[in-house]
Amino acid sequence: MSDFTLVTYRAAIGPRAGLRVDEEIYDAAKATGKAAYASVLGILADWRAARGVLEKAAAKPKGAPIKKAKLLAPLLYPGAIFCAGANYTDHMAEMARAQNRPAGPTMKEMGEKPWHFIKTSAGSVVGPGATVKLPKYSQAVDWEVELVAVIGRTAKDVPVEKALDYVAGYTIANDLSARDVMKRDKLPPEAPFKFDWVSQKCFDGSCPLGPWIVPASQIGDPQRLALKLWVGEELMQDSNTERMIFSTAEQIAMLASRVTLNPGDIVLTGTPAGVGMPRGRFLRPGETVRLAIEKIGELVHRVA
Fold first, then answer.
1. Positions in the chain short of pLDDT 50
2. How far is 297 from 72, CA to CA, in rounded Å?
């Protein structure tokens, strides 16, 4: 058996699920003889059985060179995209400084539960090498490197200690954010419609994802992973998932207490310090963004 990662690549007949082994790609459906494995979503829907089948298929002697493949987002159309807010201690501290207020207790210290918002799926997700067009209505699009948990089993009301059993694997996302439209300035602070989450978080291309999904068994503890982000050659974010306020397991358990999580849903687990907003530095057309997470790899995209 061999280690593998899950990819989606562009074939002559359209997008196909693939197994990446070292520097080669195998067509997942052809390698396993299972037609349902033609898409990564089809693989996730059968993840309990698929993992062993794919490990055996990944041991085959010869695939296609990965350098000749066009990789797409590993999940072209995730079921639901849940995004954690205010979930790193270092990020909370830098945002408090930017707003000239004390850092104060975290939500966890206050006895609160993890907090999430939702991104759109088909319109938001783009893959490695994509060019994201900055929305015309914003002049302040920010970057946010995030560890992504990919759900591989239906989860409802699961305890924290078993929550990671429902994760098929992990990938990388950039939770792009249009900071200058996050609030409706004409509304009072207490207004329930003060925040505009669609404009801020759901513009086209706002969720670069990839480059592949690494099975959870190859990651181990998701709370011990270094993560970094560069804009051009400038290192902006440099932290570790151990600085999460709510762990990946705590987030999944919380979400599963409210909704049913299904195979193909993804959870963006929050971003650390180093975003552009506190320094007044935002993405500019022509720039390249590079994201890296330990044990996963690198995701690169451009903005225009």
1. none
2. 15
What architecture is domain 81-303?
Answer: Alpha-Beta Complex (3.90)
Domain residue spans in the chain? 5-72, 81-303
Closest CA to 137 of 184, 98, 175, 174: 184
For residue 223, the one-letter residue type is Q
Distance in angstroms (rounded) separating the CA atoms of residues 144 and 132: 14
The three-point CA angle 251-266-286 to 5° equals 115
Residue with tokens 């920010």: 142
Question: 155 — phi, psi (to 5°)?
Answer: -130, 125
User: In this predicted structure, what is the pLDDT of residue 218?
Assistant: 97
Q: Which residue has the tokens 């195979």?
A: 263
- Reading the block at residue 160, the tokens are 């924290």
| 183 strand-pairing partners | 195
| Dist CA 247 CA 14 (whole Å) | 37
User: If you search the block for the tokens 């698929």, which residue do you land on?
Assistant: 50
> What pLDDT, on a 0 to 100 scale, did the predictor assign at position 2?
74
